[in-house]
Amino acid sequence: MAEGFFSRGFRGRRRHTRGDDHLPPGQYLEDGFPVLSAGPTPHTPLEDWDFTVVGEIDEPKRWTWEEFRALPAEEVTKDIHCVTKWSKLGTRWEGVSVDTLLDGVETAAEYVTAFCDGGYTTNLPLEDVTGGQAWVAFAYEGEPLEPAHGGPARLLVPHLYFWKSAKWVRGLRLTAYDVPGFWESLGYHNYGDPWREQRYWGD
Amino acid sequence: MDELRLDGNAAAGTLGEVFTFEATTAQYACEGCGRADQIGAAMVYEVRGLGTIVRCPSCDNVLIRLAHDRGRYWMDLRGMKYLQAANFAG
Question: Which domain holds residue B69?
Fold first, then answer.
């Protein structure tokens, strides 16, 4: 009756493919689009808005709203997963790829901190916002992104829990060291892979 | 969205889980602007399922961040110069 060693708990890293309705562990399908916010909704006028890439970079980059909207943008359809257990499948966004924003940037940094109006921050490995994995999104379901959902622009990193998709994003700071952001410094997982159910530190 | 914002008394239950004193009448001074007031007068954002954020009504500075998971509480009180509470056992 000898059986080979079988690890029942190991799930491995699943790549979610379009059309696959399977949800990450512990998630439920949500019809609405819940608004969660840790502070007042910012209302930065577009004439005052800019997006910057700063930190471990020789020459910081900056775009005004007009310059940002003149960049090549793409439409993407993604599933999103909130750590509070709701998921929405097939959400449509339009945004500028972070690859476009970092085009030509030379850096030794391995991490980024997204910083936002209102003071919110979140940290990610640089390799998780490049290679077609992240956007600065300005439209949702064909309409300009509402302030309550992070408008005029939010970060969109759908392969991680949605707290990493920072609302009201104003820039990326390239850092040599990983700097835990707003929720990461309050017990939430530093990386946040929904498929490995990395909700809290120690998961 | 303002409808997500409550006054400090709404956090009484959550703060009462970690503080043995009556938190809403506790006095704080904001590290951001220096405003001194009762926690009950501050702005509270109960971020559903994520945590409780208490902000100064004058400058929006985060006074208290509180989260909990599986029996652990995480607290950040750096936004206040001090928190002062009456000790009725005293």
Answer: 2-84
Q: Do A186 and B74 touch (CB under 8 A)?
A: yes
The pLDDT tens digits of the residues spanning B42-64 come to 999 989 889 999 999 999 999 99
Q: Answer yes or no: are the C-beta atoms of B33 and A19 closer than 8 Å.
A: no
Measured distance CA(A106)–CA(A111) in Å, rounded: 13
Do B45 and A163 make contact, defined as CB atoms within 8 angstroms? Answer: no
The model carries a pTM of 0.89
Burial, B27: exposed, middle or buried (Cβ in 10 Å; 0-12, 13-18, 19+)?
A: middle
Domains of chain A listed by start with CATH number: 47-196 (3.90.420.10)
Q: pLDDT for A90-123, tens place per residue?
A: 999 999 999 999 999 999 999 999 999 999 999 9
- A 7-46 → B contacts, CB under 8 A: 34-41
